[in-house]
Structure formats: C-alpha cells, structure tokens
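Final report, closing paragraph on structural work. Over the funding period we assembled a curated collection of sequence-structure pairs, and we close with a single example.
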Amino acid sequence: MSTKKRIQNQSAWILHHRPFSNSSMILEIMTCEYGRISLIAKGSRSAKSKFRGILRPFMPLSISWFSRTNLGTLTEAEIQGAPISLAGDALISGYYINELLLKLLYKDDPHYEVFSLYSETIKKLSLTSQIAPLLRQFEIKLLELIGYALNLREVVNSQIPIDSLSYYEYKPEVGLVVVQNNEGAMTFLGSQIRSIQQQNFECEDTLRCANRLLKKIISYQLGGKKLMTRKVIEEMKRNEK
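Its predicted structure, as stored:
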C-alpha cells in the first residue's frame, strides 16, 4: 500500500491545465523542490471554487497538495508575488517555454536550477521587447541544465578549437565536425559558431544561426516531434508575409 504524501507551501508555476470531469482540472505544474508534477484541482471550474481565477499559467503560486500516486490532489493555492502580464509575442513565447518543459523534463525529478531559470525568464518576458535573444538564452541554458549542453568550443573527440574561417556541421548526436563547404542546414562558419557560444545575439546573423541550430537540436531531443507552439509561431509568420 502506497503512503500518502503531503506537501505544504511549495513555490510553483502552472505549465498547462485541462478540464477534467464536470468541474475539475488536471494541472501540469513546475515546482521549486519537486520538479514537474501533475495534480487534480477538484471543483476548480465551479463558480464558488476557492481556486477560481488563480490556476492559470504565468501566475507565481504557493501550493499545497497530497498524493499516493503520480497524480496528486491540490489542497491549497495562493498568489505568491505579482502576477506576470504577457501579451502578443511574449505570451506565445511563454507558452513555448512551458511546452519545452513539459516535453523535456521527466515528472517528479527535482530541478531547482530549471525552476529558477524559468521564473527569471518569464519575468523578463514581461519586461523586454527583445524576445528572440531571451528565448535563445533560455534554450541554451535549459539544454545545459538537463544534460544536453552544446559543445561549441572545439571539434568533437578532439581539443582542436574552432577556427573562425573554417566550416563546421553540428550533428546533434555528437557535436561539431569539420566540413569543406557551407552546404546544409546545420553548417556554420566558425565565426558564427563562436558568436553563438558567446551569445552575441545583438547581431542579427548570430540570432538567425542560433535559431536554426537550436531548432534542430531541440527537435532531435524530442525525437523529431514538432512543438505545437512552434507550429503556431511559424503559421503567424507566414500570415504576416
């Protein structure tokens, strides 16, 4: 028989929610000390629910719950700090970040540094118009924290540093290899690789290269599955043309 576990006053962010039964919701949540968890919020969609208006993404929360299985039950939730207001591109980007965590993190695996990175990035999203550089920085740091750090300093299986005038292909399964020309979606000039490594995202060329590189790497880590939010972003860009 499994033991009931009670957790009190845990800092948390809701990544996703969906209706359950007549008046409840299933919540996918990122917590400070317990990583990504799933909770049921019973009666939370009813007009008289104490959770009404609180259980939504980008709201910093303090929550309590109990569980015997991998689906716990929310018992308390209150706002912890000022709500984050996101709109337009920042809102879509916030949902993209949420989807990344849902797809890349295992449940019940503590990730304090990822929680801190997420909290910091969501707050910055509400304060800046420079969204693309912020997303690239988040992606690079997230990959590092979950064990998939990019090696952009040297050729794979060697200590040969990157040469600014040479061409390299980044293979997600191994890293950088030397190539003779700039053909291929994952081929970059050494100077571009160095700029990405230094996160010199004020340069438009570096930003475009970083987007191309990270899109492929994340797709590889997801087994080729495309993120729904990325589909939305790409569709929006097509409609703008």
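Residues 204-221 form the longest helix (18 residues). DSSP finds six helices and eight strands in the chain. We thank the funder for supporting this effort.
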